[in-house]
Amino acid sequence: MADPAPSSDPKPTLSFSDRLQLIQTLNGLPTPTFEELVFALNPPPGIVPDSNAALGHRVSEFLKWAEGPMGPGLLEVLNLVRPMVGEPALPAVDSTRAQPSKLFIVPFDRNKYFTGRDNILDSLHTVLQREKVTALSGLGGIGKTQTAVEYAYRHQDDYQAVLWIRSETQEEFASELSALAQDLGLTQTQESEQAAVIQAVKRWLSTHQDWLLVLDNADNLNLVRDWLSLKKYGHLLLTTRVSETRPLAERIEIQKLSPEEGAVFLLRRAAFMPAQGQLSEASEENQQQSLRLSQVMDGLPLALDQAGAFILETRSSLEEYHQLYESAAPALLAKRGELAIDHPSVTVTFSLAFERLIQRSAVAADLLRLCAYLAPDGIPEEIFTKGASVFDAELQAVAQNPLQLIDVLTEAGRFSLISRSGQDKTLTMHRLVQAVLKERL
What we know:
This protein has about 450 residues and is an alpha/beta fold. The protein contains 19 helices and 9 strands. The chain has helices spanning about 15-30, 30-40, 55-65, 75-85, 120-130, 145-155, 170-185, 195-205, 220-225, 260-270, 285-295, 300-315, 320-335, 345-360, 360-370, 380-385, 395-400, 400-410, 430-440, and strands spanning about 105, 135, 160-165, 210-215, 235-240, 250-255, 380, 420, 425-430. The strands form 2 sheets. Strands 1-3-4-5-2-6 form a 6-stranded parallel sheet.
């Protein structure tokens, strides 16, 4: 996890003996005086339990907030307490210390090679302002996470806190929540009861405003469903391979890069131009070669990133990589650069999604295998309905039942490995998905 943004005026700390004295003093104060202290520092609603709770519990919750990243600091509390018990206040604390510092807890550096997506980023901002929650959806490796990272960096000044939770599995989600709770000053150990951690993080979100929470790789929407109700307090952004997220979250689809965008990204990643260079700055030969490779990679950012990493690390030329790809595409699609650790290879990415599909629907997986051998764009569904007699028994039965076929097509497209046009009754599959599936066979 990234550290919170450093404050220009860090909170002063108390010694252990001062902390102990403060706790003892607060627990010994009459309730009305403690209420005066709470009123003076004005924590967000819900921080301090109501007066029906035990005073010790109320003091504990109050101090957790005061000492946490969004509180004023314990020295500020002590300066208000001392006069209440007849002692002079310590030297005045600069008022800027009482202002909450902004949090930026994002586990990725900004991608200096990030290219294009301006329309997506504009749409994302508009939808979040209106709906408070939205989902970036698309094929694995299409750039959902990197787009979310870029949005977080571009708009970090709009939020008091930018938070990130990886959400691909239940185990990962639980681990990330524990780490986030610690970053927020809510728990002491990752061994705390999971239910308590969940409640602590949710309470923090519900007692603060102007935050952005990114739920990354949220392919299991049921895992994050009940977190979306927190949108009344801040913004939630999901990245997911799920092809339909409504009504839980408005979907913004991320599609492949245009040939020109892909060429620019490749040249930047392979260090044939500066990180912010433009296509016109490259040599004529590199422009042509990068455009060709962009089209061969079908605009998939992950594949272009792999190609750029390989070219850079092996000191190859664009032409040499193209020749290698024509003779050994499966090996190159499986090869990730040694310094590129933020995402698995194209082969691993698509294979994992396909394995999940097999677990959900074997017949949908069979349908995808067939599509891998057809022209990738505009595959007519009539191939399956009118040619059903040549298929295996299970797929044949499905193809002859319109409702079952719709269900299978929905499953086949669940992780964006294929997309369907209901109006044209055609299917489209990315060329590199086809390449990986054919290699698996």
